[in-house]
Design brief:
By secondary structure, this protein is an alpha/beta fold. The strands form 2 sheets. Strands 5-8-7-6-10-9-11 form a 7-stranded parallel sheet, sandwiched between helices.
Length: 253
């Protein structure tokens, strides 16, 4: 696996931008903010408030050019000249999770989901449902950026995110570790409500347009569907993730 299975320093943090989100992160006693970066053009009461809040929280403030802040935030219109790196304590390498004495029993694997809003909502739903992990590969899936954090309503900070290089790499590691690999597909005869699950199972959620890719598809144990009696072709991937996640909650009860 090489370096793909290790976690890089940037995978330990999630970034938020804008005055209000940064102030909320600094005020949240349950979060650990690593640093605040303030544009050198940021002046006035807003900048002073952020510096004061950071000092109270014991968080260092770095100054950078406005352009640098825009680049780091990845959003030129809404960063307001400030961002913060927040530690994500439950984020770790997939290899580390699989090597645990008690590996996760139920995980989601994201394959080709490129819309940040969908990734954020899936993280929120999976965390609410108490799932053991959401595998977010570094390649082929939306980056864990401030748009994802915003879509998750801040839950992304505490989500059980598992990192690896690609969805194919994750599928190989899961298969090797004895997991059943189940992919959601509209045409599958077996549904999420009547499938028999092994002790360890991973569920693949495919991209918004192409669905589950062939590289992962060839490793799938079984395809499953969400029954839809109404006249609708498919659900948004985050809605499908919600149905699946809470079916797993129902089974666990």
């Amino acid at each position: 696996m090489g370096d793909e299975s290790t976690i890089s320093p940037k995978d330990r943090f999630l970034t938020v931008y804008g005055r209000k989100p940064v102030l909320e992160a600094l005020a949240d006693g349950g979060l650990r903010v690593d640093k605040v970066i303030l544009a050198d053009t940021a002046r006035g009461p807003g900048a002073a408030e952020i510096q004061r809040a950071a000092k109270e929280a014991g968080v260092p403030v770095q100054r950078a050019s406005a352009h640098r802040v825009k680049v780091l935030a990845g959003n030129g219109k809404q960063d307001q000249g400030v961002l913060a790196d927040v530690l994500a304590p439950r984020m770790r390498a997939l290899s580390a999770a699989l090597g645990d004495r008690r590996p996760p029993s139920r995980v989601l694997l994201l394959d080709g989901i490129t819309t940040p809003a969908n990734v954020g909502m899936i993280l929120r739903t999976a965390t609410a449902a108490g799932l053991d992990g959401v595998i977010v590969p570094r390649r082929g899936v939306a980056a864990l950026d401030p748009l994802v954090v915003k879509a998750s309503a801040g839950v992304a900070f505490r989500a059980p995110v598992l990192r690896c290089g690609s969805a194919r790499e994750a599928a190989e590691m899961l298969t090797e570790a004895g997991y059943g690999l189940y992919a959601l597909g509209a045409s599958a005869r077996t549904t999420v409500f009547d499938i028999d699950l092994p002790q360890r199972a991973a569920f693949v959620l495919g991209g918004e347009t192409a669905g589950v890719g062939p590289e992962v598809g060839e490793l799938v144990t079984e395809w499953v569907s969400i029954p839809m009696p109404g006249d609708v072709e498919s659900l948004n991937v985050s809605a499908a993730a919600a149905v699946l996640s809470f079916e797993l909650v129902r089974r666990a009860r």
